[in-house]
Hints:
By secondary structure, the protein is an alpha/beta fold. The chain is 40% helix and 21% strand. It has two domains: 4-247 and 454-474, 3-Layer(aba) Sandwich (Aldehyde Dehydrogenase, Chain A, domain 1); 252-441, Aldehyde Dehydrogenase, Chain A, domain 2 (3-Layer(aba) Sandwich), CATH 3.40.309.
Amino acid sequence: MALHFINNRGVRSASGQTLPVTDPATGQAYDTLERGNAADLDAAVRAARECLAGPWGKLSAAERGRLLFRLADKVAQHADELAAIEQRDCGKPTKQARADALALVRYFEFYGGAGDKLHGHTIPYLDGYSVLTWREPHGVTGHVIPWNYPMQIFGRSVGGALAAGNVCVVKPSEDACLSLLRVAELAAEVGFPAGAINIVTGYGHEVGDALARHPGIDHISFTGSPRVGTLIQQAAAERHCPVTLELGGKGPQIVFDDADVDAAIPFIVNAIVQNSGQTCSAGSRLLVQRGLYEPLLQRLGEAFRGLRAGPPAADLDLGPLIRQTQLERVRGFLDEVCRDGLPIVAQGQVVAEASEHGYYAAPTLVRDVPPQHRLAQEEVFGPVLAAMPFDGEDEAVRLANGTAFGLVAGVWTRDGGRQLRMARRVKAGQVFINNYGAGGGVELPFGGVRSSGHGREKGFEALLGFTTLKTVAIRHG
Length: 477
Ligand code: NAD
């Protein structure tokens, strides 16, 4: 029975209602979580405000950093336990679950060392004046988190907010929140004061909506779908609350015919099968220069046929999707592929040991996808790669920029000039040249343009978003 975490202890919902926790590998419920509402969210905000006015507000940046370092160590000690929780909750293969736990450690380390390096400036001004700027925390930050990488997104978002001096109210996904409740307990054990980290579980339209509207929340960091991002921003606009939106993507992998194909293939495959394709930065579109199109599809077809989806503990290429509706979504896209006669180059397999009640989807490579087809335009959030040819740089740029999104792009070419031209012309928050994802990169600012959102998380840049700038002008004569 998982409880909300408010004021450093587990609490029941005011309503007494719960929700089931389901194992995506079997479709079976195995636990419950609290179905929170506006009253629970309000209790969390009150706890946070008291903490801010009390012990948290008195800590120096260095002391906050020390707490984050201690939490990093504690999470490292509990990495296997946290990975096991995440594995069962989200259906992640062992390698991925473990990588997520270690990324959480890195986020706490990185932000533990960053908060006391955040400083303002002095500005030359009129005779007799001195002007300085201070970076101040917003106060209570709200964090709405999706189910695909709960630990990683908690680490980057809450880690950055705490380092900058904020206290946090977190609304995790109703589909994956157990690891975060455990991390909050570990934070209490290493000395985070009561109210610094609060977690209220439940549905988005109940707890998430209450968070977006609560006047005691001073900044919102939302990671999730463009649809809900719009709702959050509209609600926040009513009270002029600043919002960071980390939304979806339709990442293009742009492969020119001078590319190092041997190097590219593992990246191209991994970028669409990692986390079963349920990744905002998934490389879900493959744009290939015409001369390389047939040979590359042939080699990728072989690679796709060798991919296996199966039980998370078997640690295969893919685990199950998160839930039944997500599986239906992926099947819906594949039904359209068949209806429209688009050629499927290859599919991987779901192994026989996988439960028939689990939410498994076979990875699929589809070719000759028209640029305006729904498969080329919308986020599937599943392991389906849409390939299409292009003729030259201009067409590659047009196709790459031809969706509503702009999160991440990959460019594969040995031509140095083209590398830089493409990096400039592609609309995206991150561009990777001859790699994709650069190993996760806790240090690398991340975020989107257009319908992929605005604001940046990760890296030092995130601290700017978790603070507000105050200008102080002193007339001293
Ligand atoms: P989602 O938008 O359905 O849910 C995200 C969170 O919002 C959940 O906690 C949910 O409970 C909450 N929510 C739902 N309705 C709400 C409402 N009316 N008001 C307030 N909160 C509400 O997204 P999801 O299905 O959990 O995650 C998948 C999406 O997240 C994809 O679009 C993916 O690309 C995106 N994503 C983006 C990033 C990024 O960094 N850009 C990272 C991971 C996931």
